[in-house]
Structures are given as structure tokens and as C-alpha cells.
């Protein structure tokens, strides 16, 4: 079976500072075991640098699809770039963000993200900074997640990344596919997986129509996975 898993909010709880969303050694060991039994891919909005900072060494049997579907890794080795991209110079934005304590600019391959979970000021201030920047440097698309705004500079999303990944695997449409995610960026992935006849699981309250079922917490995700 093919198990596709979002990272933040799915395999680890959402934390205030995304740079500290570390996975525990036990959970990592569990995923390593799971990836020996099944084809397991973590499908994240993070790029490989940001992902490995919170995940640590990546087991060789585990796939990672980074930057919202742009690149495929196996372990820490780049296997394929599904979608190329070009990000503008972020220096002016970096300078601006320095004046907003609590706002974090995450610079990623193919996109950037403004996190404002720790910002005490008015959310609109962050939005304005974001809007001003993207007016000058229009991204292909804007993604809004939980207290995060992202500008994406390539034609990719998690759904397209998964489509490419299944092609790469030579998936025969018979093997069961499951996707688990918790955020708006996971909905592209869920639509794709559903269209292909797979199962979709949402983590959290307010299950979206794209999901077949919902789990209440990260712990419930691991319980679900342990039954596969
Ligand atoms: Mg997530």
C-alpha cells in the first residue's frame, strides 16, 4: 500500500515556531518501520533543508516530497525534480520582516512563507507586507494556511506532486493509496488522491468534503497508521 503523509499538524503537532516542530525518536522509528512494510512518502510544504532540520536523518526507505510537490527525495537523496521554479530576491521582504517581531520569514525552494503565529500585532499588518511584496513579484499562486501566507513560484501543488510520484512508482491503480493531512494545502492532495480512487483522512475538526474521514489528533494518526 502507498501511504502519503503531510508533516506539520499530521505527524507532529503544530508548534509556535515551525523551526521547532521536531519529531520524537520513537515516532521516527515507527515511520521507518512503516516505510519498510509500505511505500511511505511524507508530502510537505517544507523544502529539504527545513524538513531535515526538524526531522533529522531520513531513513533510506522513506520518500519525501518537498516544497508542496516540487521535488522527490528518497532518504536525503534527490531523486527527481517534478516541477522547476524561480524565486525572486527576498531581501526587501527579509528587511521588512525584521521590523515585525514574532513574524518568521521561511525561505524555501520554490516559495517563501510568512508565519505570524507569534505576532502580537494586527494580522492585517503582515498581510499588507505580503501583498506589497507579491504585487512587485507576483507568484504563480498564493497559499493561505494556519497563520501562514505563502507565495509559490512554480506550477506545482501537493496534488500534482502526488500524481508525479505515483507515475514514478509505476502505480498500477490496484494498490491502496491513503493520504493524511490537516491543512488547506492538503486539499489539492486529497482531491487528487480521491480522483484516483484512494482514501483521504483529515486531521482536526471540521472535516472538509475532500476527506473521507477525520482523526482528532496527531496521536490518532499514529494509531491509524499502526493498524495498516
Ligand atoms: Mg500540515
Explain this structure to me?
There is one protein chain. This protein has 228 residues and is of the alpha/beta class. The protein folds into 2 domains: 2-83 and 156-226, HAD superfamily/HAD-like (Rossmann fold); 91-152, Alpha-Beta Plaits. It contains 7 helices and 12 strands. An 8-stranded mixed β-sheet has the order 5-4-3-2-1-10-11-12. Strands 6-7-9-8 form a 4-stranded antiparallel β-sheet, covered by helices on one side. A hairpin with a 4-residue loop joins strand 3 and strand 4. Helix 5 (158-169) crosses helix 6 (186-195). The chain is globular and about 50 Å long. The chain starts with a strand and ends with a helix. The model has no long low-confidence stretch (mean pLDDT 95). Magnesium ion binds at residues 6, 8-10, 181-183. Magnesium ion (MG) binds next to loops.
- CATH names the topology of the largest domain as Rossmann fold
Question: How many distinct domains?
Answer: 2
Task: Look at the structure and give the mean pLDDT.
Answer: 95
Percent of residues in β-strands: 15-25%
Helical content band = 25-40%
Biggest sheet, strands in spatial order?
Answer: 5-4-3-2-1-10-11-12
